[in-house]
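Can you make up a polypeptide sequence alongside its tokenized fold?
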Amino acid sequence: MNSVDFTFSDLIAGYVTAYDSDTDSFSLKTSDDRAYTIGLTDNTFAEVIRNLGEGFNNATDQMRGMLVPGRFVFAYGVFYPDGPNGTVLFDAKHLVFAGRTENAYVFEQPAWWIRQIEQLGRFYVESEFGDGEIDYRDYRTQLTITGQKQKSGRQETDTMSRLVYGFASAFLLTGNDRFLEAAEKGVEYLRAHLRFVDAGEDIVYWYHAVDLQDDGTEQKVFASEFGDDYDALPCYEQIYALAGPVQTYRITGDPDIYDDARRTINLFNRFYKDHGPNGGYYSHIDPVTLDPHAECLGHNRARKNWNSVGDHAPAYLINLWLATGEQPFADFLEYTFDTICERFPDYDNSAFVQEKFHDDWSKDQTWGWQQNRAVVGHNLKIAWNLMRMQSLKRKDTYVALAETIAQTIPDHGCDRQRGGWYDVVERVLDPGQRFHRFAWHDRKAWWQQEQGILAYLILHGVLKTDDYLRFAREGAAFYNAFFLDVESGGVYFNVLANGEPYALGTERGKGSHSMAGYHSFELAYLASVYTNLLIRQEPMDFYFRPRPGGFKDGILRVQPDILPEGAVRITDVWIDGHEYDDFDAEALTVTLPEGHGAIKVRVRLTPTAVRFSADVLDVSGTTARIALNGTLTPHDLKYLDEAFQTATAEGARALTFDGRELSSICSEGLRYLVFRKQKAGPDFKIRIENVQPAVADAIRGAAFDQEITIA
């Protein structure tokens, strides 16, 4: 019989329940409420999650004091199977905290993801082009783990387009002109070298790749040479060829990009779409006849799959609608999401959606490597994009499927012991099994973490369900703690189940057929949007460089993603650094100056909801009255501090808070008030009236009711 009678290292993630100084150990519960006792040693060291471009964020000297109830922490250490009565002991060697205080998560800081996308942009610009001129003849698909180019002269369309997407997204958040230069030059190169225009058919399709020869000539690679799609034109390659150009179009309004997108959509609707009663889109077509039923397609003949239906929306179609507001693109989105809701659920048989199909939508469970297996990230991607679509066209079916996935997948595709999302698993449990078997391994890929983080961020942002925020935070903590290559830059393709980087074979590099500057940039861009605008209610700035005469009717649409109607409004616009007032705040549009030349537009979007406010009502004598509203979190201390500074500057020596609209207060907020009272002197008084029970309990629970009078 197999038994665990040896030592081994592993990771535990969860929430602290108590610290015992007598035994120098702490108790922890995992995401699924399993309890551990974790010992500390003389050599245990600790840190706080650090971002790309940051140094080691040491917390070793403070770690025992930081082990307070409710705090999320990763503990990497050693299991010893020699405890009392056959128990297994665990000693932590390395702790990683999600923030400096018990309720703080560093990746919820307003600028966290913006700093991350800036670092990603710099890494890929330097890796591909150095610090000189940006020339895409120097671009290579294959990059080593440190960002060095490999010898192959191959340039793949999709990886280049996805990198262009990354540069464009980085410009949208930072306004760094070098990123936009890299995006625009990438679009020009794609159009000149990797695009096939069939003017007679009014279609565009895209080459798989181009090989740069040693003598400077080019060898076009038309049909795919990737193993799953060999000698075919896979739909997803045509889809992702548009990802970078369309994201760039949102910034510039370049009409040539719009025309390429229109013609590529013509290709989809004329040759990939099933115009018969079954509907949907075929996954592959023959490169010569453009026929999805051609015998030479082999196992890809007359097939439909997740990529051919679901990838349109996130790759380019949502962004094309955001840039234009045109109804045909909204209709296309609705068609794809209706198809997903109708065809993909299979919950009578599996906890996962069905992803591959025959012509008539019967299940294809014998195809290639997939067989009857689930890609965890595809399920999460469906939930994420359904919630985006819900804000464009509300349908009960969209929310129902998104929530079914959100509530089902954590128990089937998430690592509730260590954190993070798994890769490919068997869709069905055999008799007696509790855990879905892994197709190959229990490693975790960077792109699947993105899908999980974005899915739960937008689910919480729209539906306000607390569990969804918890899953978003757990996923973002794992990603930021273990996927960021803080030494060399960029992110790792895969990590082991315990978070250690996996650096072998094709999964070793930072650029390959499967990896480019896409998912990591997309995560940084949209995590910033969802966290700031939907969850933390923080304003954000976005940058545009509209071409003269580019956008139709001179209207620049600046909505950063499909957000719930009325969630944000424009509060400020600057053109070339000067304030500009010709905008529609609610419609999220800017009317560009007539006959404008090369201009740079900066737009500030502000959430309409208020998470927390502290308003000084009056200062009478030496007493200031301050109204508190909403939920006070660690991120809101700046607003409380502003009110405190305003009141004391007017001579206040006592604060009376009206707490009738304050629903909760964090420990950091209480400590702030007590600290300020201490610094102001013994005669300074703090009083809170009309207090909610939860707030009163928090004050008493922290033993601060002697310092903060509850009226």
In short: The chain has a mean pLDDT of 96.
